[in-house]
Amino acid sequence: MLLKDFVIPNRELIPEDVRAKITKWSDYIDYWAVDWDFRNDTFMQGWVAYRTRKERSLPLESGLHVYEEPGKYRVLVKVVDVFGNDTSQVYDVGVG
Fold it and tell me: What is the CATH number of the domain that holds 76?
């Protein structure tokens, strides 16, 4: 899974001094995770990446996931921005 873009709604609510420090869209992301087999109930992260105080970089590509059975799966990607806002997107994928 590749995280390609992320948009903060209402950027005008972000203080100008904070906006001045943002150089790319991924700077707004603090954490993101993937549930490889989301079943419309509880989010079960199968892969996760987050920033720490010591490690400020954030990978924008998840680790590889291999499905053991062919079929249709729902993949849910959850992103938490630096302000604590949670955003999720579901993708339907076919395997095999």
Answer: 2.60.40
